[in-house]
Amino acid sequence: MAESDSLSPADTAAADIAEPIEVPDRARRDPTLVGRLDPAAIGLERNPWGGASGRFLERAMRHTEGALPSRWLHIALRNALLARAESPYGIDGADWTAERAWLLLRMGEADAARMLVAGVDVADFTPKLQQVAVQSALASADPAGLCPIRDGLSKVEPRIAPLVDAICSSLAGNPESAAADIDDARRRGRIGGIDVSLADKLVGAGQDTKRAVTIEWDPVPGLTAWRFGLASATGLAIPERLFADAAPQFRAWAARAPMLAVDQRLPAARLAAGLGVFSGQSLVDVYSAQYDRTDPDELTKSDAWQLRLAFVGKDQPTRLAAMRKLWLKADKDPIEREATRAMLAIAASQVRPDAALAEDAPNLIASLLAAGMDQAAARWVRALADMDDRPQDVCWAMLALGAPSTRGLDLSYKRIDQFIGRDTSEGHRRGALLVAGLVALDRIDGPTAGKLSGRYGFGLDRRNEWTNLIDGAAKRGQGGTATVLAGLAFHGDRWSNIPALFLFHIAAAMHATGQDFNARMIAAEALSRS
Hints:
Elements: H1 9-16, E1 33-34, H2 54-62, H3 71-81, E2 85-86, H4 93-106, H5 110-117, H6 127-139, H7 153-156, H8 161-171, H9 175-188, H10 194-205, H11 225-233, H12 240-245, H13 248-255, H14 262-275, H15 280-293, H16 303-312, H17 316-329, H18 334-343, H19 345-349, H20 361-370, H21 374-378, H22 389-402, H23 413-422, H24 429-440, H25 446-456, H26 465-475, H27 479-489, H28 500-512, H29 516-528
Antiparallel strand pairs: 1-2
Helix pairs in contact: 2-4, 3-27, 3-29, 4-5, 4-6, 5-6, 6-11, 8-9, 8-10, 9-10, 10-11, 13-14, 14-15, 14-18, 15-16, 15-18, 16-17, 18-20, 20-22, 20-29, 22-29, 24-25, 24-28, 24-29, 26-27, 26-28, 27-28, 28-29
């Protein structure tokens, strides 16, 4: 046969479709063993779930709030959910992946959720995993990710299935079919308004001849994953009022949406860094992009300029002055404050410990610990003795919990009692957190902790169903189960909502299951943010 000049357009389209590839059995992946992190590399046992029931873990994860008040618990929980380990008993492997990915999405971890979903062959998808895969693709602002799972979508997501068909047809180079699908969906009326308009705009974006689509946000009452994903994929700015009324994960998703301008991503990136979705370095990268886009005449007034000075100012006073401005600006909001601390960690590590810097030391140490730089933070131990009581107490308490060892730290009953005596927080709350963390990390003995708890009424010996569950998981070496139960206990958006009793059992469980680093960082964070 001659070349394609003798073929009709329909024949050409058919000729361009590759024959289905049969995947041999040896190449198929085990749906019961899905994850991206080696459990041993993150301090967990080979089987972090042990003999825990999959249905029990499923219920615990469903009742866990997405945004946790602890940045380091967020990081620990994310890593546990990403661990490559066998599914717990009593739950389908693909459903277990779906539950983990769904919690990650609620935590704002779009990339992590997508990695889990991608670890299961589409042939092994269950209806639950297919639904979560849809949410994952939308959270990642990647509508093309819907196309591999479109075949069974009419059963699990019938309202959006015709629009997904249209989007995938457009991406495959069939604009006429895509336009017909959009028009058909609009006529049928199962989904309408901005949801159809966003799909129409995305379909038009893939055509040489653009379909004119105007997006009106004014009548839209709220933000959904569909609206976020399609708007972000086309670079549309979502109104601030919709973000303000939506769950925090939407902003965290926006932080990594590639089509959004850096000015749109920056507020989201700050929230993502404060929650633990972004590292401090990732936030620095976003500020670097903003620095490059800022008008030279406005540059010296920007936070990006102050951040640059904090890193490469001509001398230490200049760098510290820039850090102080950034700390002060973020001081009123706990998430903003933690994001700024993590962002400034490397700059803080360049400051030589000195008692003369006692007023800056609490923020410098908190910044180092926010990024997990415990060795650098421990260098401040030798400067404590020459500080006045107030800054010394703040720094000593963080280092007593967060430093990799207790070398050079006075952890006697007398010193702890002095700290509690000078603690002005309501009910000596900071003192209670300190004692809870120290005994959990085995840095003071049980009798000392009991004496202090009894004297000040900390109630660290109280028990309930949750304490029995997390203690039992720790005794059985179930690090992943203990971490899930820790996330279950953390409600609200502030550390003030977390009792010292909870910190004690969480840190103790992590310490007992090989997650000493996480235990120390969570305990130190409790002091730095309270």
